[in-house]
Amino acid sequence: MKIDSSSESTPLSTRLSAYGGKARELVRFGIRDAPMTTSIVVITWVLGAATGSLVHGPSRSLAHQIAAGMGSLQHGRLWTPLTSALWEGNLLRYIGATVLLLVVAAPLERRMGTVKLAIAAVTTQILGVILGLGWASLAKVVDASWGFRLHSGAAVGASAWVVGALMVATANMGTLWRRRIRVGVLALTITLALFSGQLQDVIRLFAGVVGLVIGAWIVGRSARGDRIVGTQREGRVLVAIVVAASAIGPMIAALSPEAVGPLAVLRDLFRGVPWTVAEVRDLCAESSTDPDCRRGLLELRLSGIGPTLLSLMPSIFVLVLSDGLRRGRRFAWIATVCAQVILLILSIGNFVIRFVDAADSESLFYGIGDPNVYRTLVPFLTPLFVLIMLILTRRYFDVSAPAGTYRKLAVSLLALLAGLIVVYVGGGMVARHGFDREPSVALLLADFPQRLVPPVYLQLVDPRLLPVDIEATLLFEWTGVVFWVAASILAFVTFRKPVDALDPRDAARARAMLIAGTGSPLSWMTTWTGNTFWFSSDGSSYVAYRVISGVALTTGDPVGPPGHLRDTIGEFAEFATENGWIPCFYSVTDDVRAITDSMGWSGLQVAEETILDLGEIAFTGKRFQDIRTALNRAKKSGITAEWINYPHAAIAVKDQIVAISEEWVADKGMPEMGFTLGGLNEIDDDNVRCLIAIDEERTVHGVTSWLPVYRDGRIVGWTLDFMRRRSEGFRPTMEFLIASAALSLESEGVEFLSLSGAPLAKVATDDGSDSVELEAMTLSGVMDNVLEFLGRTLEPVYGFRSLLAFKSKFQPRYVPMHMVFADPAALPSIGNAVGRAYLPTVSLGQGVKLVRTIIGR
């Protein structure tokens, strides 16, 4: 629905002042409701500055007094489990701890209360340290190296108690958040403990476990609610989290020089090269089995940014696959299974190389200088666990991409390989003097497959060539990186392609059902181009939706018998989740919101519908002064209201309507908004009525369109959609047309008119209660604030709030319109989908102009 409106512009200085006031209000709010967290942040920075620990962390002498460790407890420094939480290891960690406290601990304090947070923090910190040190003693039995590092290590940092308190808080959270947070936190902390392996990582893990165990004792348990629709999707998310953690672990070990955990098998692979290419060739010429020769070849392969990235690319590719798992894609499941099988084979190969051919005590496989059965078998367990998990959950991953997607992917990959072969061979011949030996075409072709393999897997294969200058090094080291990056991007793109299940007959079927059945005031919008139709199992109802960025975004209420509404919502939600989509019902009525609330869903108000109840309408009294003035002025000016059907209207009238609309769009400098806002295409419909303001010379001054509203097969109301007026024409055109439509349709026996809703605008409420402040801190509350901000920001361009204020002239009845969704964690994706639904064709230039308009007005 569009209207040409103008509003008073607010000076930028006034806006900045208002934003500053909001910032000060947030600071006061944080201090009042999170005093413990705020105090700890201040104390941590003050202590760090006072002791000179901000840059490089506590000195050795200070660490002996305040850091948690075996030595501290053995010497009776029993306060260290608590004091260790007030220092950090370096400046970056001070900044990270501050962010963690403000983003995690502060909301927890508002949720749990200061006293409960303090109990959770102290308990999980102390028990986490005790259990972590106990594990350090136990670890020496199975891994002397790791156990020694834990035993002699010292730990500082606030992350342990923050993680512990977070796990405590999950005890009384809803099912979805409880599972997400617990799986995510445990996966992350276990990964850090096994790969990074520092004492603080182990303490953090045990603090989380303690919080998991004692949470119900501190905050109680959550009430068991109804079954949440979409458990299949939730299973996909949890599996994706675990797979992502298994991929992140090797990257942590590879990139961290301090990684000492039992799975940190890559920690020695990225180091400086003590020899040149010529020196290594000389060593190998004397004896190819010499340990220095093998070590030199290994380090030449693994040195530099290119080899480092190439060694990490399989993990990055698995991260991409985890996104496909989140969406339920079968291809992602198959590819991830294959990846885990390959890792298992490599682990078995590692074992065989070490213990069948154990004569070589200088083995460099995985860079481990002290191989043993434990350190060889532990890496075997991670892919085995992930593989078993994938097999047990294979039923979750049944979403297929559109037909031909992976045939195109295969063709693209083959074309990519062909192009890289040409580049590598051709470039190698051009830069042939840049290698340690002059290559031939055959030698370069034979060497090409090794360029695609991460160098950590080539340690037992002698290199055919080694680069000695920049050009040859770029070809040698970066060809494989380009391949893996491109393959990851191509795979990611396939996961975002929805299955196109639209049958051309569905639109006609849906329209026939709507005309013969019952819908909401927005139901006619379900017939618009861009929607796909889903029909209930009994064929009595349908839902119109569009898939945008993995979100199944509906238009209005489901259409069908009101008694089937709950079943229809549940069925559609299951259908969406089975296809890997996030179900979201947009612009729905209170009836749908009540049902989804009872199902455990979340929701927020996105617009305010304005209803004019007909039957005894009379524009009398002071409240309708503007309306009467418009009617009287139109009569004096010879302007009348005339109903037309746009597809069959006179060409001269249609041309004027098109010109008025194009003028309106050009004035905005932005594309027309779509989704629930109709344009010229939507009024080109035999079932849509248009009311135009036209003078005696047949000049059209304005136009409105009205969508039919059906109940039990008959029209009971009309919904206002398209609104345009000529910029130089009769100014109160809209007041005149809407009032004329109300009087005309009332005489036809219509029950009501819906003036529809203005997106991102709603009736202001004066409620300063604490409950409103607390609600603002929830994810839905944050999203509500974001929508409020967008409404204010876009007002200079689209005038949604001015539109709502304009409609208030008719003294309508206000009915809230909602957006409801099963998964609050998906709000960012849902917000993106809604934005793209309304503005699917915004160009870069239009985006820049929008920003300039917002800032400049």
UniProtKB/TrEMBL annotation:
The membrane spanning regions, by residue number, are 34-55, 91-108, 117-138, 150-169, 181-199, 205-223, 235-255, 304-321, 333-356, 376-397, 409-431, 475-495
As for subcellular location, the record says: Cell membrane
* Organism this protein belongs to: Rhodococcus globerulus
**Phosphatidylglycerol lysyltransferase C-terminal domain mapped to chain residues:** 517-820
InterPro entries, per this entry?
Answer: LPG_synthase_C, Peptidase_S54_rhomboid_dom, PG_lysyltransferase, Rhomboid-like_sf
Give EC number(s), comma-separated: 3.4.21.105
- Peptidase S54 rhomboid domain mapped to chain residues: 76-218
Q: What class of enzyme is it?
A: hydrolase
List the GO biological process terms: proteolysis
Topology in the lipid bilayer is annotated as: Multi-pass membrane protein
Q: What Pfam families does its record include?
A: LPG_synthase_C, Rhomboid
UniProt entry tagged with the keyword Protease = yes
Task: State the name under which the record lists this protein.
Answer: Rhomboid family intramembrane serine protease
Q: Name one GO molecular function term.
A: peptidase activity
> Which UniProt keyword terms apply here?
Cell membrane, Hydrolase, Membrane, Protease, Transmembrane, Transmembrane helix
